[in-house]
From TrEMBL:
Pfam families: BPD_transp_1. It is a multi-pass membrane protein. SUPFAM superfamilies: MetI-like. One of its GO terms (biological process) is amino acid transport. GO terms for cellular component: ATP-binding cassette (ABC) transporter complex. Keywords: Amino-acid transport, Cell membrane, Membrane, Transmembrane, Transmembrane helix, Transport. Belongs to the binding-protein-dependent transport system permease family. HisMQ subfamily. Part of the binding-protein-dependent transport system for glutamine; probably responsible for the translocation of the substrate across the membrane. The chain crosses the membrane at residues 9-31, 58-80, 92-111, 123-143, 184-204, 224-243. This is ABC transporter permease subunit. It is found in: Cell inner membrane; Cell membrane. Residues 54-243 form the ABC transmembrane type-1 domain. The keyword S-adenosyl-L-methionine does not apply. It comes from Vibrio astriarenae.
Amino acid sequence: MIFLVKGSGVYRVISAIFITFALTGCSQYEWGWYVLNPNTEQGRTNLWFLIQGFGDTIGVSLISMCFAMLLGLAIALLALTKSHTLNLFNRFYVECVRSIPVLVLLLWVYYGLPTLLDISLNHYWAGIIALTVAESAFMAEVFRGGIQSITKGQHEAAESLGLNYIRKMRLVVLPQAIRQILPALGNQFVYILKMSSLVSVIGLSDLTRRANELVVNEYLPLEIYTFLVSEYLILILVVSHLVRRLEKRLTIPSH
């Protein structure tokens, strides 16, 4: 078992599934896995119902991550200017957003924002907006640290070539900074994937919401939530493996 856990990404996924379901035999509880048995019509229907939740979970997470990176980069650049006002706004935004629980922000966006702006907002985009804002504060700090890690000589070299600020950041600074912060970006994407489970409270049919609905219909919470744990575990392990592979591809050889 230890060999499998230390092996490649595929072996880690297989090991995680094996360990999760092996632990279900460590008690006297009579497990009702028939509810998810792929050999029965009921089980196939329930499995397909749960698996369909991957679409909303991954979709909301990916879109939120992209928007959060753009917004976070914009906020980070404010901290790197010589303007005291913009620096102050950066600190105010980052500290305020990081202080608000994601669930509270999600509820405010879904129920409060439409009332405040007199607009119609469905649960899908409410989830994306809330996750984007919540994540952007962390992304701002990640980008700020990455940009500041680039040596002064790189900035001076870009300026000596006649590049303006925008072209310097786009062609010289940001490509190097992204290589530096790639592990942190991967961690933040994993964070968004896990936090996306909160969108179930506003009715989005993600993995968690579908599991909750199935529990109400089947009255087997232990089996269904154990399967839900496995779904998130597999998803996070796959994402982590892909991030590590991307990190290796973008690593600059030291010799």
